[in-house]
Amino acid sequence: MTSHTEAIDARDIANLGQLRDLFAHADPVPSDLAERMKFAITVHALHAEVAELMDSALLTTRGADAKVEPTPTDSVTFTAASVSLMVSASPSDQADTDARVRIDGWVTSPGAQIEAVTIEGSVSEISDANGRFVMDDLPHGPVHFVITDPDNDDVRPVITPTIQI
Amino acid sequence: MTPTPTAPDGLGTRAGKAFAAYIGGDRERLSELVDLVTPVLWNAARSQGAAAPMCEDAIQTAFLQLVDRAESIKEPAAVLGWLVVVVKREVWRLSRGSRREIGVDEVPEAPTQQLDPESHSILSERQRVLWQHIATLTPRCQELLRVIAFADRPDYAAIAESLGMPVGSIGPTRGRCLQKLRTTLGSDPGWAV
What is the tens place of the pLDDT at every residue in B106-164? Predict the structure, then answer.
């Protein structure tokens, strides 16, 4: 006989493990819930304006034959009231494999700071006089961008939804 | 991803360290905290019987309150328990509109755990047997065991307290809920391996 005043043992841990598997199977945590929580926290902490995902080339480059799958070209446009951002992803120049990603970006404000937040942390670039910027050597996976004006702290930052690169 | 009961640091301790680092200026550690605690918070929210979107709102509110009040939280190490309290309270606050009988100051009890028919149909044979045994426990025990199952042994006592269970209801001793689960499974010849 066992009693409720005894220490938790391996059998109890095994029972709880089975219980965890049951609920994880029958009522799983939504797969993107943690990422959405992080995004909400970032928007909240920055008092940021959220840019809208306007169009993805995935949706637009449809072939003549309607049955043909859209050709994926990894280019995405985001728009907010104050600024628009277009980014396209390609394999990085830095590596022989396609393990790393290069981002070529264009933003409607020259001299803006664009921060890419990835699973490895964040990388920042300043857009040139034409609004162009390049970020090489990013990891595959989720990324979102934060656009700020380094010369004016009063302007609300703009944050984009997370995309996969 | 599987919690390791023998690990020196339980989930709550690791979450506390990440949160302390975040308060100390290492802002990116918050992401680690979110990854660590989201499964516990999801089950704490869902065990109250609320629909998924309401549970997501409650969890988001808890994280945003945590960020807003980060500097004033006295014990960063207790962050997991703090979040569980806020999530449970928030689920009940959100659902109060549709359940007028819930009093403002009442500490609500979780309902009997339910699975929708579709979820039930994807359970394995053994999980169905386990489910039948779970259903024989009190709603309080069902709630407690469901939530601690997603944490580690050192966290059980703190989580039980966060859910409103009396001190000593679980951890380091087995407690009545875990004992009941053990007894009911042990009495089933079909469960024995």
Answer: 566 788 998 888 888 899 999 999 999 999 999 999 999 999 999 999 999 999 999 99
Structural domain boundaries, residue A116: 33-164
Neighbours of B75 (CB within 10 A): 11
State the pLDDT at residue A66. Answer: 43
Number of domains in chain A: 1
Q: Which residue's structure tokens are 């494999």?
A: A97
d(CA A7, CA A71): 60
Asked if B115 lies within 8 A of A26 by C-beta distance, the reply is yes
> Which residue's structure tokens are 């403002």?
B104
For residue A101, give both structure tokens: 């990603």
ipTM for this model: 0.90
Distance from C-alpha of B181 to C-alpha of B69, rounded to nearest angstrom: 38
Mutate to test the interface with A, among B150, B156, B177, B180 (most CBs of A within 10 A): B150
Element (H, E) at B19: helix B11-23
CATH number at residue A103: 2.60.40.10
B10, B40, B157, B181 from B152: Cα distances, Å: 5, 10, 10, 18
Residue with tokens 């609920």: A23
**CA gap B149, A20 in Å, rounded:** 5
d(Cα B5, Cα A33) in Å, to the nearest integer?
25
Q: Mean per-residue pLDDT for B82-92?
A: 94
Interchain contact, A33 vs B146, CB within 8 Å: no
> How many CB pairs below 8 A link A and B?
119
Residue A18 lies in a domain: no
Q: Are B44 and B163 in contact (CB under 8 A)?
A: yes
DSSP string of A14-59, one letter each residue: HHHHHHHHHHHHHSPPPTTHHHHHHHHHHHHHHTPEEPEEEEEHHH
Could you give the percent of chain A with pLDDT greater than 70? 86
pLDDT of B28: 85
d(CA B40, CA B78): 14
Q: Taking residues A54-66, report their average pLDDT.
A: 48
